DNA sequence: GGACATTTGTGCGTATGTATG
DNA sequence: CCATACATACGCACAAATGTC
């Protein structure tokens, strides 16, 4: 095996084989391969993509199929196609550090982008078995569920849900809605500082809801994180599920 | 948005929406959703899956389509189905911790599985711009490329490549081939200890080569890591690219 | 054993999506 | 734009295996 797209530029080099009849259309596989090059930074913004004819040759498909892949990428805003000139890379990846002191606003702000949190909905509900275990409360105990979305420069970066024990965090939703900051929301509930205890990372296809929230073309891949934040005493203050557009973000673990 | 499959058991609860016409077949999306539940440990080994009729209802598809998803999972060994009884979970999830002291053998051994590394090929080549930057050597300087695969209980977990500066690590490949351990291979080159300086995580579809190396059904999602290991003096000793089957592994960041 | 409900397995016809040339 | 081949998805119907009463 070679990890072709990872180390070197597969899209611009030797022929890459596709997988037929595995439930994933050829045009999507090609689009994903190119998107992976962009996400990894190997195809820089402004760079010119191979011509349709060359892509068709590289992936051993009809030119119609290569065209469709480029059309999909153009619809997603990853590339821009100009008649008679070619296709060019539009987007750039955004590194997203993960660690004990992970805070969205600081991450994005540090990278020179404007950060903002957007509360979509909040409600109280009894904790499911999984939520109860993570938050260290009894199953069925009331918890606060907050659905939100976070942006950098107006582009949605992550969408997800968070759960907070009640009644301690009864005022979180309102404070978060007002400030757009999780840190400020938790502070309003008496949490001076918090740290990330653990993060689990997986990946899958975006659901239609996620696609809508992240302004993604449906069927794209999302990185999914499940994390627990605890206060200075080690008490869980937040269980979060986040979905990141794999095309726009690269998670980074330092240390 | 809801992150349905992530927070709670979507497969066994409320209806989950699929993405139509995005180049990914419905049966594969359903198979992926169930595989993710298994990988996250939310569907325990031996647990009975919902009936075909119920799955069809939940995902709003025909029973034939739900059947095909189960057939795909059965072909991958994730579930086993018995006529008149139902389908049951076969595989078990494998958490994979990532941190400064990340070592494959320890990770897998700690989880109660047998670990083993398998060298596929090794060669010397001039460093590309990316490799040179990561390893802190001059572009074009000779580096050692090692392609390998790692197993737990005989099941491929990760496949990838690593790069090492030359001439310092001229003996790495042979030592690694003999022991199947990166730690032992580095030790043979005088590296008493090493730590992981950074890890970047992204996700995309598996290439056919990766699918073959990981014994994956083609077109599945892989988590891709790029990591730099440094010695006690902070000198880079290894740049690694790894592809993990997203169905079998969940990356975990502690702290 | 019989009767019955549940669940998986199978066949067939049809419409749409995908890919080629 | 067309024609062709194949994969995907649906709907209906029925057979086969299992478990229960």
UniProtKB/TrEMBL annotation, chains A, B:
UniProt keyword annotations, A-Z: DNA-binding, Transcription, Transcription regulation
Pfam families for the chain: GntR (PF00392), UTRA (PF07702)
GO BP: any one term: negative regulation of DNA-templated transcription
A GO molecular function held by the record: DNA binding
Keyword Transcription regulation (UniProt): yes
Residues covered by the HTH gntR-type domain: 24-92
NCBIfam families given in the database record: C_P_lyase_phnF
PANTHER family noted in UniProt: MANNOSYL-D-GLYCERATE TRANSPORT/METABOLISM SYSTEM REPRESSOR MNGR-RELATED, MANNOSYL-D-GLYCERATE TRANSPORT_METABOLISM SYSTEM REPRESSOR MNGR-RELATED
Protein name in UniProt: GntR family phosphonate transport system transcriptional regulator
Organism encoding this protein: Prosthecomicrobium pneumaticum
């Amino acid at each position: 095996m070679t990890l072709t797209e990872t180390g070197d530029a597969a899209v611009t080099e030797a022929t890459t084989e596709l997988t037929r009849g595995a439930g994933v259309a050829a045009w999507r596989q090609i689009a994903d391969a190119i998107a992976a090059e962009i996400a990894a930074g190997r195809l820089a913004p402004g760079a010119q993509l191979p011509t349709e004819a060359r892509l068709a040759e590289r992936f051993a498909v009809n030119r119609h199929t290569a065209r469709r892949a480029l059309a999909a990428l153009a619809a997603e805003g990853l590339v821009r196609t100009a008649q008679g000139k070619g296709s060019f890379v539009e987007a750039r990846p955004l590194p997203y550090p993960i660690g004990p002191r992970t805070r969205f606003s600081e991450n994005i702000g540090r990278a020179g982008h404007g950060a903002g949190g957007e509360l979509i909905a909040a409600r109280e509900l009894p904790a499911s078995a999984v939520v109860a275990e993570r938050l260290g409360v009894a199953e069925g105990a009331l918890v606060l569920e907050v659905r939100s979305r976070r942006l950098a420069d107006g582009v949605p970066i992550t969408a997800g849900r968070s759960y907070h024990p009640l009644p301690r965090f009864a005022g979180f939703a309102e404070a978060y809605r007002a400030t757009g900051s999780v840190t400020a929301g938790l502070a309003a509930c008496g949490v001076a500082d918090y740290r990330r205890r653990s993060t689990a990372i997986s990946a899958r296809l975006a659901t239609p809801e996620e696609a809508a929230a992240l302004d993604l073309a449906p069927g794209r891949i999302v990185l999914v994180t499940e994390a627990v934040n605890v206060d200075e005493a080690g008490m869980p203050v937040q269980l979060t599920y986040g979905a990141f557009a794999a095309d726009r973000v690269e998670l980074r673990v330092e240390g």
